[in-house]
Amino acid sequence: MTSCELVDPMRKKPRTDLPLSDCWLSAIDSPSTLARRLSTPGHKLCVDDLSSFARDTGNYRLFPIFNEKGKARPIQWPKRRLQGVHARIHKLLSRVAVPKYLHSAVRGKSYISNAAAHDPKMPTIKIDVKKFFPSVSRVVIFNFFAGPLKCRRDVAGLLADILTFDAHLPTGSAASPIIAYYSFKPMFDEIAQFAESLGLTMTCYVDDMALSGPRANKGVLYAIRGIIARHGLKSHKAHTFSGLQPKVVTGVCNTAAGPRVPNKLHLKIKNGFDALAKAQNAVEEGKILRPLLGRMEAAAQIDPAFKARAKTVRAKYSRPKDVGGLEKIE
User: Fold this and answer.
1) Which residue ranges does UniProt annotate as crossing the membrane (predicted)?
2) In the predicted model, is pLDDT for residue 324 greater than 50?
């Protein structure tokens, strides 16, 4: 047993301010040690389990989702047992202290806190990384586990295989947001340091970065795009906003009067109700209800009034299982 295994984090109240060197995934010296550390009281793992999880075939559900314009985005969703392992990896990494700028995959933070960090009266820059998860390759994930986490190379390779589909991060994994962050932490840190040197507030939610302050301008945006390019990634959705312009930051409309539900989300909810009114049967209702309720719940995070509306809609369109209509909407 190594010194890192003297205290199992499952047996005591977990800390969320650990240095990376004290993470339960740090300095793993063998696949059997990895299996023990990824095990939970209700889900014991062995090396053969990890080997099976490292294969793409049979471990993922593959399907597309479509945006309003009909453009498909491929989804790779880990099946239940593999998703459980990914969730365990996320949980262990989430106990590590992270910089103030990070708002994703951090307990107590969200896209709401990400937006609230910015003064709506200040000039603001917004920029995303293009196709971020598909751009996080097996190689950079391996380098994170073999480098900063100091795992033995075969262990780092096994973790990289378990966490990737077709040699990149899957879009439906519970671990993908936090693995993506650590894989490109040097880039995010560089942007944060650059922002600090200019007196700007910088936040990051997955790949969605915002910078605000008096010196947030096109020249700064150009420099940030250069940093992203130097790290082998592409940027898009790059915009600058004056202090007078309304700004939607991570899905929240920042105004001087407080956060507001963006007009775009209002419109999607309205269109959902219009479509629901035209539904011909319970099957059509069900297809419309699920995304509508999801959007209403997202809006409720900003405006609590939507929570009551969503509850009313659930009650109205729930159906007893033996009546032949919809089952209760989960």
Assistant:
1) none
2) no
